[in-house]
Design brief:
This protein is α+β, with helices and mostly antiparallel strands and 127 residues long. Helices cover 17% and strands 42% of the residues. It is built from one helix and ten strands. The chain binds copper (II) ion (CU).
Length: 127
């Protein structure tokens, strides 16, 4: 019973965090995600328990970039709502062409345990 309550509280906290994260970017989808586009750049995002390997990842506006996700420890995934991007250990790469400069939050897309809500990073799109 106690476990259920903790889980519920965590889920609620997550929703609150997700809601907060969204007002920094107006709407979703300032990027084109297309696996057929040839990427001219690449970033690799690695996840362990419970963090990503870098606090931020830099890409360039208008330049197709292949985003590769690597699960190094535990079971995680990434979701970047502002760039229409979601990857995990099954679908682990996509080509994204960011159309707007700015900061886009990365969160873990898998409820992985006690450190889940602290798994955040960002993709910075430069002009
Ligand atoms: Cu995680």
């Amino acid at each position: 019973m106690k476990k259920t309550i903790v889980l519920l509280l965590s889920a609620m906290l997550l929703l609150v965090l997700a809601a907060c994260g969204q007002d920094s970017e107006s709407g979703s989808g300032s990027a084109i995600t297309d696996p057929e586009v040839a990427a001219s750049d690449e970033i690799v995002i690695k996840a362990t328990n419970y963090e990503f390997d870098q606090p931020e990842y830099h890409v360039k506006k208008g330049v197709p970039v292949r985003v590769v996700y690597e699960n190094e420890e535990g079971n995680h995934g990434i979701i970047v709502p502002g760039l229409n991007l979601q990857l995990d250990s099954k679908k682990n790469s996509a080509v994204v062409t960011p159309e707007e400069a700015g900061e886009f939050e990365i969160a873990c897309s898998v409820f992985c345990g006690s450190g889940h809500s602290s798994m955040v990073s960002k993709i910075i799109v430069e002009e």
